[in-house]
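re the bet — no i am not wrong, look at it urself. input seq straight from the record:
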Amino acid sequence: MPIYEYEHLGPACGRGAVFEEHRRLEDPPLERCPQCGGPVLKRISRSFVRAPKTNAELRDMGFTKLVRRDDGVYENVTARGGESRYMRRDEPGSLPDLGRTISD
């Protein structure tokens, strides 16, 4: 069931000035607080977060995504210019350059 936010129009009760309520999609919005009976107003809130991110978006956000290709071999699908596309367990030079992506 979705969670909806409601705000008291008058004084708040024990549920607080703003409270959450589990409601079915087909249920009408609350007009009164279930606890105190005071008038309430349904608030607009964010309903979802877009996910997953594409590899390009992850790279632009500073993330590194490694995908396992073989035993000890990973592909850096977010490789930046000059970085090795493949990382091998026994080759430290193939590791991503984290100094380019991590800053204070």
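see?? The first strand starts at residue 3 and ends at 8. told u. also The two ends are 41 Å apart (CA to CA). so pay up
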